[in-house]
Design a protein that fits this description.
The chain has 97 residues and is α/β, with parallel strands linked by helices. A four-stranded parallel β-sheet has the order 2-4-1-3. The mean pLDDT is 80.
Length: 97
């Protein structure tokens, strides 16, 4: 894993082939993926690093707890991930990974 501080969202993700942005709201312009599908997609992207050094870089964009990511930040995302923080209403309501 390689973490760094960047001046802008664009600078942080410019060399990434897949960027996953977290959001609490649906965005019509951004496909939404489940947590399970997001994990599979990131694993698939990263596995290409073995054969192609110019691909396989994935990023996870996280916003702050109060306001989340801005629309400007999400423009760089390939897909959106909404992680529910509300407790399930009943036992069958919680989807397992």
């Amino acid at each position: 894993m390689n973490c760094r501080i960047a001046e802008s969202t664009y600078d942080a993700v410019a060399d990434c082939t897949f960027v996953l942005g977290t959001t609490a709201r649906r965005r019509p312009s951004l496909p939404e993926v489940s947590l399970k599908d997001a994990a599979k997609r990131v694993a698939a992207e990263v596995s290409t690093l073995k054969t192609d050094a110019s691909s396989g870089k994935a990023a996870l964009l996280l916003g702050n707890e109060r306001t989340g990511l801005t629309t400007d930040d999400l423009q760089w995302a390939s897909a959106a991930l909404a992680i529910s923080t509300a407790p399930p209403l009943y036992a069958g309501d919680h989807q397992a990974l």
